Amino acid sequence: MRDGLRVAAPCKINLHLGVYDRRSDGYHPIESIFQLLEFGDVLWIDSLKTSSGIELCVEGPISLNSSVPPEQNIAYKAVRLFQSASGDDSGWYICLEKRVPLGAGLGGGSSDAAAVLLALNRLKGYPLSGQQLENLAAKLGSDVPFFIKCGIAETTDYSTANADQSYAGTEYASKAYTGTAYITGRGEQIELIDVLAPWCVVLVNPALHSSTPEAFAMLDRFRQKSGAYPKPLIGKDRLVRTLESHPASWTFYNDFLEVFMEIGRPEMQQSYSAILRDLKDHGADFVNLSGSGSTCYGVFSAVESAKTAYKTLLKRWPLVELTFPLARRGNAVVQ
Ligand code: C5P
Fold first, then answer.
1. Is residue 247 within 6 Å of ligand 1 at its C-beta?
2. Cα-to-centroid distance, 212 and ligand 1 (Å)
3. Which of 57, 126, 199, 209 suits 80 as a labelling partner, its CA being 20 to 30 A distant?
4. Ligand 1 within 6 A of 35 CB?
5. Contact, 115 vs 82, CB < 8 A?
6. Of 233, 126, 135, 254, which Cα lies nearest the Cα of 189?
7. 67: exposed, middle or buried (C-beta count within 10 Å: 0-12, 13-18, 19+)?
8. Is the CB of 103 under 6 A from ligand 1?
9. Boundaries of CATH 3.30.70.890 in the chain?
């Protein structure tokens, strides 16, 4: 009999992303609003009864580069890290149903890693505290602690009734989630925000891989050359007040977008400006780039416009998804 877990690994978008000057450790401080979305990967995790190894299989519409060994997959690294921190020596089978593209600014790999850490901790009877999991997560990547924090958020405000029905029966559906956060540091300082999110999101990815380290390096080069300074910090209170207003009046931005539009690859410049225009033309109240690219998105307060935009853009772009802020579906969309 199987005693494993099927867990969701939801993706995120950055509603706002300010990037500041590179620190001496090579990382850039950021100020961001992260929003968890329903769209994501799904993982099956089970113990191997007869071996102590790690078996990783990848299925789903997004295929990974087959020349990259499984040990380099972040989900595999998460298993190893959990084992060394908890003393676990079991063998594990992980099947990754990959839907979120790589190098897309949606935190797909980071969410997979967090899902693995959370699931293993549960399957082994919670040997690690939430803080220990967050510390491990930070070793795997700057975005990973956010997904841990959302996964262990002990909020009672959002019942399972609000969880995404498409994940019914998964571990995730039984979790109470808070999916919005004010993020600082290099990404590991997380303050969950309790706001309503009465809107939906159309994600559009042009099938261009965007490397995070390269995007940060490009931003440094751009600022050095142009003499541009980082914009001042906005602060949590002001960002939350903006978040509470109608998306049509949001003043959020993503510092990477300006850099790509000035000195990015021509195919990125063309794709980003065409997608953002398409989304606006189809009624998006707010448009932006997520993370360091390559996914652009539109925020729609009217679900009918979002559906029309989704159907039209699906014919023009390689990957288009209509999705919702996580755990807010009950009040997510103004019809
Ligand atoms: O933390 P993560 O492994 O995702 O970061 C990948 C790379 O992106 C880092 O090595 C660094 O070059 C860059 N980065 C950064 N500032 C951040 C996050 C990432 O410069 N806040």
1. no
2. 7
3. 209
4. no
5. no
6. 135
7. exposed
8. no
9. 200-328
Residue nearest to atom 14 of ligand 1 (CA): 27
* Rounded distance from Cα 214 to ligand 1 centre (Å): 9
- 253 vs 90: CA distance, rounded Å: 45
Domain range 200-328, CATH class: alpha beta
Looking at the predicted structure, is the pLDDT value of residue 171 above 70? no
pTM: 0.91
Predicted local confidence at residue 330, as pLDDT: 37
Condensed to tens digits (0 to 9), the pLDDT of residues 139-165 reads: 999 999 999 998 875 332 333 333 343
Mean pLDDT, rounded, for 70-77:
95
Which ranges in the chain are annotated with CATH 3.30.230.10?
A: 5-192
Q: Which residues are catalytic?
A: 12, 143
Reported as a single tens digit per residue, the pLDDT across 199-224 is: 999 999 999 999 999 999 999 999 99
Q: Is residue 212 within 6 Å of ligand 1 at its C-beta?
A: yes
CA of 291 to the centre of ligand 1 (A): 11
Tell me the pLDDT tens digit for each residue of 286-305: 999 999 999 999 999 999 99
